[in-house]
Design a protein that fits this description.
This protein is an alpha/beta fold. The chain is 31% helix and 23% strand. It folds into 2 domains: 244 residues, Rossmann fold (3-Layer(aba) Sandwich); 70 residues, no CATH class. The chain binds adenosine-5'-triphosphate, iron/sulfur cluster and magnesium ion.
Length: 332
């Protein structure tokens, strides 16, 4: 990568003490995001995606035990006091969620909320805040922004609410936007529009994005690079094109086979057999081993993330010898 990364996560691990034992939610995660870059994080439920996203804002639950570093411009957010983190949130790193009602207050109009954020963070007066809020609502593709400004969140459709939340997240022009399953609750057409909006805003404003999703298809449309997560570990880290064309990790290949595509009925999509292991009871060797068609005895050793080719990292001892199907073979 050229130039300094905006974000550098080094050896991030997150655990919880539970009655059933220590839950290893995230183990030894390392990745970077360059200014303006869009990076996707994919994996099934429980793979540690949301916790990783929350760690970038210093918003991990208090019970979480954390090690490693989350460096934003070289400053470790995991060692930054809460009062200083408040200045980072929104201004440097902002987050949007699957459910906009968690970020929007039902008792205030959309306009009141966005202009209040402008006034609080940007120090502008009431009239100027209103003008900027209406401009921003227009920029995120809300039609008739001056009218929508006066409406309450429940008066907006799901897609419009999601756009309003994106507008809220952009008020302070953050350099990194963490989007955690931002389109999962929306229907497919609206999903595509919201993703395109996120990609467009990122291009126009130079905002870096970490897009968290369980759907590799969503990443394919939006992101430059992809991090595949399995049971708390990054198992493959590479460009989106590489992941789609020739995945090197059996799990990435498995996720590709599950992407909905034209001409293939939903029941014919190959889901990966078996289940993600419990974080309190992980297999000792390769965490994907019990579900992997390519398992061999040497997979029962712990697997390291190794550089398979320049910029291409894989956590699988068999990556060089396997010829795994990518998205192209599956469509063809
Ligand atoms: N407060 C907590 N206490 C104990 N375990 C937790 C806690 N929060 C999260 N975990 C565990 O950490 C693991 C990772 O959770 P996380 O929410 O990051 O997964 P995810 O990849 O975002 O999943 P999903 O796709 O369902 O959103 C899960 O197994 C979860 O049960
Ligand atoms: S290390 Fe072995 S079990 Fe794990 S993904 Fe690779 S081939 Fe499959
Ligand atoms: Mg999640």
């Amino acid at each position: 990568m050229i130039g300094e990364p905006l974000l550098e996560v080094r050896d991030l691990s997150i655990t919880f003490r539970t009655p059933a034992g220590v839950a290893q939610a995230v183990t030894g995660s390392s990745f970077t995001i360059a200014p303006g870059e869009r990076v996707g994080m994919v994996g099934e439920s429980g793979s540690g995606k949301s916790l990783t996203g929350l760690s970038l804002l210093g918003l991990l639950p208090p019970a979480a035990e954390v090690s490693g570093e989350v460096l934003l411009d070289g400053r470790n957010l995991l060692a930054t006091p809460e009062r200083e983190l408040r200045a980072v949130r929104g201004r440097e790193v902002s987050m949007i969620f699957q459910e906009p009602m968690t970020a929007l207050d039902p008792v205030f109009t959309v306009g009141q909320q966005i202009s209040a954020t402008f006034r609080a963070h940007r120090g502008v007066g009431r009239a100027e805040a209103k003008r900027r809020a209406i401009d921003l609502l227009g920029e995120v593709g809300i039609p008739e922004p001056a009218r929508r400004f006066r409406e309450y969140p429940h008066q907006l459709s799901g897609g419009m609410r999601q756009r309003a939340m994106i507008a809220m997240a952009l008020v302070c022009e953050p350099r990194l936007l963490v989007a955690d399953e931002p389109t999962t609750a929306l229907d497919v057409t609206i999903q595509a529009q919201v993703l395109e909006l996120i990609a467009q805003l990122s291009r126009d404003r130079g905002t870096a994005v970490l897009l968290i999703t369980h759907d590799l298809g969503v990443v394919a449309e939006t992101c430059d690079r992809v991090l595949t997560m399995y049971a708390g570990q990054i198992v493959e880290r590479c460009s989106t094109d590489d992941a789609l064309e020739f995945p090197r990790h059996p799990y990435t290949s498995g996720l590709l086979a599950a992407i909905p595509r034209p001409g293939v009925a939903a029941e014919d999509l190959r889901s990966i057999p078996g289940r993600v292991p419990s974080p309190v009871d992980l297999p000792p060797g390769c965490r994907f081993g019990p579900r992997c068609d390519h398992h061999q005895p040497r997979c029962d050793e712990a697997q390291e993330l190794t550089e398979a080719a320049p910029g291409r990292w894989v956590r699988c001892c068999r990556h060089a010898e396997l010829d795994l199907p990518g998205a192209v073979e599956m469509i063809g």
